[in-house]
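Before drawing any conclusions, I needed to go through one protein's amino acid sequence and its backbone structure tokens, quoted below without any editing.
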Amino acid sequence: DSGKDAKDAKAVKKLEKKYKKEVEELTKQLERATRKSEASVKVQEETNSQLAERIREVSTLQTRLHGLETSGSEASIELERLKHIEEELGELREEAAAVEEKLDRVEGMYQEEQRLRKKYYNTIEDMKGKIRVYARCRP
């Protein structure tokens, strides 16, 4: 029995060694898996942080886009208003040109009237002088 006990003790030690090695190997694998898991968690946290940042950027850009669309529509309205004003300005310029042309004609007519008035005045004055000469009494 003692030989059998010794054999059993040897077998037990051998099995203990084998299982101890397996436990150490499994512990190492567990540590590696834990490190990989921790690294994955870090990467996931960084990714989540980047995702949150991108979501904020998208929100900011959407706000800016809405503002630009609003200002674009306001600019479009302002452009239409300016086109209308430009059309009115063109019409007013045409009217001003017509009025200026009419003013030139009226000034020409006024100058002609002044010339004729002066001519008639001088003719009347000349006739008065001749009448005086014909009607003068000698002293």
